[in-house]
Amino acid sequence: MKKHILPAIKLTAVMILFFTVIYPLAVWGIAQFAPNAGKGEIIEHNGKKHYVNIGQSFTEDNYFWPRPSAVDYNAAGSGGSNKGPSNEEYLAEVQARIDTFLVHNPGVDKSEIPVDLVTASGSGLDPNFSVQAAKVQVARIAKIRGIDEVKLNQLIDEQTEKPLWGMFGPEKINVLKLNIALDQLK
Amino acid sequence: MFTLSILLAIPYGKYIAKVYGGEKTLLDPIFNPIERIFYKISGINPQTEMNWKQQMVALITINMVWFLLGMVVLMNQDNLPLNPDKNPSMSADLAFNTVISFVVNCNLQHYSGESGLSYLGQYWLMFLQFVSAGTGMAAAVVLFRAFRDKSSETLGNFYNTFVKSCTRILLPVSFVIAIILAFEGTPMTFEGKDAITTLQGDSVEVSRGPAAAFVPIKHVGTNGGGFFGVNSAHPFENPSYLSNMVEMVAQLIVPLAMIFAFGYFIRRRKLSWMIFGVMTVGFLMLTIPNINMEMNGNPAIAAMGIDNSLGAMEGKEIRLGAPASGFWSIVTTVISTGSVNSMHDSSMALSGMNELLAMMINAFYGGVGVGILNFFIFIILAVFISGLMVGRTPEFLGKKVEAREMKIAMIIALLHPFLILVGTALAAASPQYTMDSLNNPAFHGLSEMLYEYTSSSANNGSGFEGLGDNTPWWNISTGFVLILSRFLPIIGPVAIAGLLAQKKYVPEGDGTLKTDTATFGLMVFAVIAIVAALAFFPVLALGPIAEYFSLY
């Protein structure tokens, strides 16, 4: 073993240099050409900057609500609820979310609420929700903002992102972009 | 996606076989000079032939160096550079667990990347992701060599195969993927957290970091340790469906290619098709039900009367969806990656069981290098059992399998269930240390503990992450499971291969048991099924199966 120690240390040192300095710098160099120079994609709105990929919390009735989050959309960290499917406490929480939603959205039938609106995402930062999740909130927002429902549905259609190459993955909507577009409607 | 991975893996396997065989390849002009510098500085002669024992000594020595250096880095990171978020140093037990876990290619993470590591710490772990994968591959190559030559003592040079694995096999693929991810939206910046005001007016912070270079090797090297806390569920780490596909192919490609490389290297391509066939049947038997169950969703939530058509969305991301998440959950557990794109703790009960089974078997594809070593153990067992059944001398590739090899194979095959079951039993028997860390009650709580030890022993690294595992109990107990379950299953198969290599080659005759046929494949599958089912069925019945019945 002894005769291997010194070569092992030296080999480690030179490999650290190669794999943790040269390789990342090469990637970093190329990433300068990526969106926002690799600092995370952003959109500017009213002089404020927002990260496109990071979901935000919307609790007021005049915005589209995103999915529940185990970390309240604070992207300093990330996390899911990690609740098991049979956990009684968890199931009660889901039931409470359904009830709350129905209180804020009178006239909506339970069977119209899509499951993503009452379950927390894995990261707690999910920037998207399903198309149905937007549609089910249209009546509420139309009433509060005094905008025609047809116009809102058009907005949803515009904001719907199709699956990759038309076939891979679900249809989805970026909640932040949708709400920014909603603000611009007025 | 899966077909694409196979199509890519076949030529890549050929390339790997060429690299290990020392033949000319396309990338020689780049890597020959680089490797020459490596060897010159470290004073290693990569042409010195070693036998299997010398290789194992070299392997363990360099792993020790990484472990000690790692403890120093992680316990002092707050005083070291590249720490824009001022994250604290790790406690001794957490550093112990983290370093071991990355040295052994497991990447169990009892910390959360955003708050637990500086960028220097992250990059130290990235270094370990490269070299631990290289270690596993170098060990597998000893096995390759042992069956290529008819009879030999020397089996190549550890440093040579190890360095080549890192530079020529892992790095080029990682580099390409890093660039794809950077353009898909994964950050690559050395700046720290960004404070922003949301549209609604709340103040939040957004963690960033040089993640684009880190994420590829976590998959290509089947390490699985994420940059951010929630791994590939994080919208920065896995920003789109496309990045999800790329990361999926990234983790499948090397384990698949190693199977084909084995066939090319020992010039028995039919054998690698047998291995591939058995592994794929097993893989599909776990994957298809999982995709199905996740798409069907949680019956308890469906009973509430809402629109459940998206499937089980708790712990899953909309941009990926339930089917892709269910598929990933098996890919990552069958292969010892352990990165997650959905929270396994919230998977349906029987999906959770399949994830556990995938790790309990740990040989359908398996981790880079070590997957094939684990599978080799099952082959040796199958050779012996079929030999007994038909009354022939057990032989594998022209080498007699005798008592000594069988003993080693038995010990290694039983070590894995032993570590998992004893670990879980101890945890269940010590509620004063473990009860508080559970996130779910009843059967699911047992599954959380079982998953933690299974993931450790399989060197997988995923978790039922509800488990509050940053306590001395979990850090230390899983740390020891990790060491044992990494190095013994490397040394065991390599020792068998080394012993077999020294034996005289017996030419194949009419009396030889053919090991590259479908019949023999079935035999191997049966051995795997029996070892896994008998050892693990009781505990699975208490955990996920009991939970399943409580849901209906």
From TrEMBL, chain A:
Pfam families xrefs: KdpC
Record-annotated membrane-spanning stretches: 12-31
Keywords: ATP-binding, Cell membrane, Ion transport, Membrane, Nucleotide-binding, Potassium, Potassium transport, Transmembrane, Transmembrane helix, Transport
InterPro entries from the UniProt entry: KdpC
Chief localization: membrane
Keyword Ion transport: yes
Molecular functions (GO terms): ATP binding; P-type potassium transmembrane transporter activity
Subcellular location: Cell membrane
Membrane topology: Single-pass membrane protein
UniProt superkingdom: Bacteria
GO CC terms of this entry: plasma membrane
Primary role: Part of the high-affinity ATP-driven potassium transport (or Kdp) system, which catalyzes the hydrolysis of ATP coupled with the electrogenic transport of potassium into the cytoplasm. This subunit acts as a catalytic chaperone that increases the ATP-binding affinity of the ATP-hydrolyzing subunit KdpB by the formation of a transient KdpB/KdpC/ATP ternary complex.
Similarity-based family: Belongs to the KdpC family.
Subunit annotation: The system is composed of three essential subunits: KdpA, KdpB and KdpC.
PANTHER family xrefs: POTASSIUM-TRANSPORTING ATPASE C CHAIN, POTASSIUM-TRANSPORTING ATPASE KDPC SUBUNIT
Protein name per Swiss-Prot or TrEMBL: Potassium-transporting ATPase KdpC subunit
Provenance organism: Sphingobacterium alimentarium
UniProtKB/TrEMBL annotation, chain B:
GO CC terms in record: plasma membrane
Residues annotated as transmembrane: 56-75, 123-144, 165-183, 248-266, 273-291, 363-388, 408-429, 480-501, 522-546
Superkingdom assignment: Bacteria
GO molecular function terms listed in the Swiss-Prot or TrEMBL record: P-type potassium transmembrane transporter activity; potassium ion binding
Alphabetical keyword list: Cell membrane, Ion transport, Membrane, Potassium, Potassium transport, Transmembrane, Transmembrane helix, Transport
Localization per record: Cell membrane
InterPro entries the record matches: KdpA
Bilayer topology: Multi-pass membrane protein
A Pfam family hit: KdpA
Function as written in the Swiss-Prot or TrEMBL entry: Part of the high-affinity ATP-driven potassium transport (or Kdp) system, which catalyzes the hydrolysis of ATP coupled with the electrogenic transport of potassium into the cytoplasm. This subunit binds the extracellular potassium ions and delivers the ions to the membrane domain of KdpB through an intramembrane tunnel.
Subunit structure: The system is composed of three essential subunits: KdpA, KdpB and KdpC.
Family under the similarity heading: Belongs to the KdpA family.
Protein name: Potassium-transporting ATPase potassium-binding subunit
Species this protein is from: Sphingobacterium alimentarium
Gene designation per UniProt: kdpA
